[in-house]
Amino acid sequence: MELTLNDYLLVSGALFCIGFAGVLLRRNIIIIFMCLEMMLNAANLSLVAFSRFRVQLGLPNYSGQMLVFFIITVAAAEVAVGLAVIVALYRARQTTHVEDISSMKF
Amino acid sequence: MALPWIILLTPLLSAAFIALFTQRLRNISAYISVAACAVSFLATCCIFSMHGPVLSEYRWLDISPLFSVSIGFTVDQLSKAMLFVVTGIGLLIHVYSLGYMDEDEGKSRYFAGLSLFMFSMLGIVLANNFVMMFIFWELVGVSSYILIGHWFDKPAPPAAANKAFICNRIGDFGFMLGILMLWVSTGSIYFGDLQAAAPGLAQHPGFLAVATLLIFCGAVGKSAQFPLHVWLPDAMEGPTPVSALIHAATMVAAGVYMLSRVFFLVQASPAAQSVIAFIGITTAVGAALIATQQNDIKRILAYSTLSQLGYMVCSVGMAADDAAMYHLFTHAFFKALLFLGSGAVIYGTHHEQDIWKMGGLKNRLPSTFLTFLVGTLALTGCPGLAGFFSKDSIISAAGHGHPVIYVLALCTAGLTSFYMFRLMVVVFWGHTRSEHARDGHQPPAVMTVPLIILAIPSVFAGYHFFAGKFLAVPQEPMNMGLMGLSVFVFLAGAGFAWMIYKGKDSDPIVIPLLANRFYIDQFYQTLIAWTQDLAASLTATFDRWILDGAIVRGLSSVAWVAGFVLRFLQLGNLQAYGFLFGAGSVVLIYYFLFSR
What we know:
The structure holds two protein chains of two kinds.
Chain A: H1 5-25, H2 29-53, E1 55-56, E2 59-60, H3 63-93
Antiparallel strand pairs in A: 1-2
Helix pairs in contact in A: 1-2, 2-3
Chain B: H1 3-20, H2 26-47, E1 57-63, E2 67-72, H3 77-100, H4 107-126, H5 130-148, H6 156-186, H7 191-201, H8 205-222, H9 231-234, H10 240-249, H11 254-261, H12 263-268, H13 270-291, H14 297-317, H15 321-348, H16 361-364, H17 366-380, H18 386-398, H19 403-428, H20 435-438, H21 445-460, H22 464-467, H23 480-501, H24 512-515, H25 520-567, H26 574-594
Antiparallel strand pairs in B: 1-2
């Protein structure tokens, strides 16, 4: 059977929802971080799918794919910063559990 | 014509010259002031030869066509008589002051003040419009303030000066409002124009009555009528010649003079007349009652002045302005005489003012005694002396349809006789009751001569051949009944005083109500304190609850409460924020995609 744009978008949406649910529900910062990456990749998947299915003059629209490269680059930088923050946090608090980090709560 | 200018400006020049150049040369200052007064007096004598209106005037403030004020003069019979009184008695009192104030440190200041007063008073007398009169009206207030507070290093005189000034200001506020009302309604402040407009104003009796009574407020303050009379007895803290000149003969008579000047307004308003007559007779009776229980020689005379001014004001209120001016004219002489006589007594007894510490002075101060006796007889209405005629003309005016005033005026005459003879008996008869009185001495000639000169008009000023030259003396047919009555009350008052006080060393009758002046001063004190407390507590409440409470604390607590409530939204849970963010996004997406 032929895969349509809808199928890709469904997978992408499912990935996004799983990622978002993980961000909301999990308590370990590293898992949350990974879930964030998953949400980014869900967005990447939908962009690539749009690019592939929007054909003009026999060629796909490469704008979407270009944007994906940017996202991967930014995500790599973000991972570097984010992991550094997590390591620093762990060193300070000896925990990666979000519920333990609540000193600004009233 | 330059004469009015000379009369008016010479004292001003003298005051300015003393203030600027001769502050330290005390005797020269005194002679300059006396000379200036003498020049005014001579010019006044010359002015009696003038006839017809005086046209020269100086346009002082000109906002034409709306409003213009000039320094212009009214020279008619009324102002001529008043000029004669002011400059004549003023000159005698200036001369007397040479003796009385001889040793005083502030002699230059004193004489500068006298000259300033003469200038201001003459301005009132000569004024031909209300604004000019009001300016000089305030100037006499200032000079009176300066002179009452002459001995400012003691506590009482400055307080008395303040009291006088403030009481006068209360009256003058009404005066100013009255002038404004007349100006608004007629467009003019000149007495001539107002007189022409008076019949038109009489079409609106309510308005005219209010305006006239407001004008009368000025007279209530200046002539010390009830309820603003409290300043005059206190003003006796000033030097005695000042009391004689300002607070007996001239300034306090300015209110009566002013009412006579605008008598056309009073005449046009019967409602105002009855109020004026009521206030006048109230003052006359009340002050006479108080005078019977005072022990300070000058205060007795001050209350006597109040009482006589009450007669005059009452007389204006009974539409008998001739009689009022007649009494003003005679009263000025004998009251100045009495005050100067009391000054001589005070001077002779080393500044003793309590009559119960004097006694037996008739042998030690013979010329003072004789002149004082003349003044007393003139004041009390002894037949043949000045006061007899003028007082009778007022009482007989009351006889035409004012029975209550008639009776009260006769009673006041009896009381006058009583308290004056009480004073005479206690001060001049009996035995001496203090060391000061024992070595009492005759004052110098510069003080006794003015007394003797004043004694002459005190006797003759009532007769037609004297007063008729200056005034329109009211022509009443001889009323034997009234004459008999007034002689009777005179004799009764004098006789009672003689019987009660002869040979007494302390007051045999003590009536606290009268000795405490009907508690009016205390009442004012309480009233003012109460009003101030009330105003203070009101403003404090407003400040504490409205400004501090509602506005300042209100605003801050609104911010605090808002912050407190909003603080609960800060869960401190990152994932809850994330959930809210996601939910928000879903809602927005739903809204934009599906609900349009």
